[in-house]
Amino acid sequence: MSKVVIAFFLGVIGFFIGFGVGEGSGLVAGFVTLGVYCFLCQFLLSRKNVNAYRKDWPVMLALDAVWLFILCVMFLKEKQNVIHSQGPAILLATCGATYLGAVVASLTAGRTVARS
Known about the structure:
This protein has one domain. Helix 1 (about 5-25) packs antiparallel against helix 2 (about 25-45). It has helices at about 5-25, 25-45, 50-55, 55-75, 80-115. The chain is about 90% helix and about 0% strand. It has 5 helices and no strands. The longest helix is centred in the C-terminal third of the chain and has 36 residues, at about 80-115. The mean pLDDT is about 90.
C-alpha cells in the first residue's frame, strides 16, 4: 500500500484520538496528544529518507488532510473566538508536528548514512 494511503488512514485515526483525548482530558491534552501522534506517524513513515522534509509533502498532507478539512469547516461555521483559540493549536499540533517528524526522520537517516 502506498505511503500516502497509509498516512491518510493514520490521519483518520488521529482525528478520533485527538477528539477522544480532548473531550476526556481537555483541549490542551488533546492537542499535545495529537501533536505527539502526528510526529510519531510522520517519523515512522519517513524514516530512512534523507530528504523526507523536502520530498514527503504528499505524505505529510495526507496525514494532516482530515484536520485541515476540519479547520476549513471551522472557518465557515464557528464563531470568531473559537477560531482564534483553537485554529492555531490545530495547525501547530498537526502541520507543525508532522513537519518536525519529517525533519527528525531526515536527520536520523542522515546520521545512519554517514556511519555506513
